[in-house]
Amino acid sequence: MEKMIEELLKEFRQGSKRAAARIISLIENEAPEGKEILRVLYKESGRSYIVGITGPAGAGKSTLTDALVKLMRHRGYRVGVVAVDPTSPFTGGALLGDRVRMSDLTLDPGVFIRSMASRGHLGGLSWAARDALVVLDAFGCDYILVETVGAGQSQVDVVKVADTVVLVTVPGLGDDIQAAKAGIMEIGDIFVVNKADRGDADQVVRYLQSILEQQTKTEGWLPPVIKTVAWRGEGVEELLDAVERHRSFLVNSGHLDPLRKMRLKEEIIERVERLIFARLKKEVRMDGVLEEVYSRQLDPLSAAEALVGEIIPQAGSAGRK
Question: How many CA atoms within 13 Å lie on the side-chain side of 278?
């Protein structure tokens, strides 16, 4: 296994897209080799700037991402794309293929595109997708774009990985924007009204601006609202300029490092929870405890504390006595 990992890493560091794709597949499949490679590559990451692109289904996120990648390449950036799609109920893989929709970019040596399944994660990002960002970071991407599935109030995981979040909407959603205000509205750093060649785009822009004047995600930054017609490339340059302004703002104001540290703290805690849960499912035997709870000799909270205490003794001090 060690020899295979060494050869794969050697190809990866030489810029092999095939090696990068194979590493991401190992991570998706939760192979031991994938975990070992991820540990190595994490030390080589930390240079990419991550932009999340989210919004409701049908907003044109893929078309906008495609246009943004082309402009980034024109400006000389090396770009990675993680396109998260709904999970196929048959294969477990991505139901839609953004690599198909962006097929003209796949031959560009400065672009790496990977479609990944959401795998039932309500927040929209699986752990494999989050780990793929580390791979693309170590691969030398200047920017990594994370395009999520159609966003609702529960699908806000993109804020856990992105330095800049672009929230895309379109004219004609009406009450949907109002409904989303309490959820995804708070995560946006830049707002895009795509398909702005439709009639009421200016009205949507004014509505969003009125909301954003009353709430800001980051002190000192008022999220801009930008009109785009992605399929024609209109407004895309203004969008990229806004992304670069937001990046400069985060760096110059001292917000970027605390933001990334906060995200890492949350990630570590989530990974601890995930490992404990997996261990509980694998190791804890519930038969006796279940009978005690069913017969009302023990309450569910004390039962849970006792079970956790079998793995983490100090955590179960309030359990069964």
Answer: 6
Alpha-helix residue ranges (DSSP H) falling in 165-218: 175-180, 201-212
Is residue 225 included in any domain, yes or no? yes
In the chain, the number of structural domains is: 3
Of 252, 185, 250, nearest to 51 (Cα)? 250
pLDDT per residue as tens digits for the range 227-237: 999 999 999 99
Distances (CA, A) of 306 to 294, 309, 314, 319: 16, 5, 10, 4
Q: What's the pLDDT tens digit per position in 156-191?
A: 788 899 999 999 998 876 544 554 555 567 889 999
Same domain, yes or no: 11 and 27: yes
Do both 88 and 148 map to the same domain? yes
Neighbour-count burial of 36, counting CB atoms closer than 10 A to its CB (0-12 exposed, 13-18 middle, 19+ buried): middle
Planar angle of CA 71, 129, 284, nearest 5 degrees: 170
Check residue 77 and give its pLDDT: 98
Could you read off the pLDDT of 131-144 as tens digits, one per residue?
Answer: 999 999 999 999 99
Q: What is the pLDDT of residues 203-262, one digit of tens each?
A: 889 888 888 887 766 789 999 999 999 999 999 999 999 999 999 999 999 999 999 999
* Closest residue by Cα to residue 160 from 134, 187, 180: 187
* Overall pTM surpassing 0.70 (yes/no): yes
Give long-range contacts, CB 8 A cutoff, 24+ apart: 202-205: 202/227, 203/171, 204/169, 204/170, 204/171, 204/173, 204/177
102 lies in the same domain as 249:
yes
Task: Select from 214, 174, 207 the least CA-distant residue to 191.
Answer: 207
Structural domain containing residue 292: 263-316
Instruction: State the residue for tokens 């035997």.
Output: 285
Pairing state between β 49-54 and 79-85:
unpaired
* Phi, psi of 80, rounded to the nearest 5 degrees: -115, 145
Distance of CA 213 to the CA centre of its chain: 26
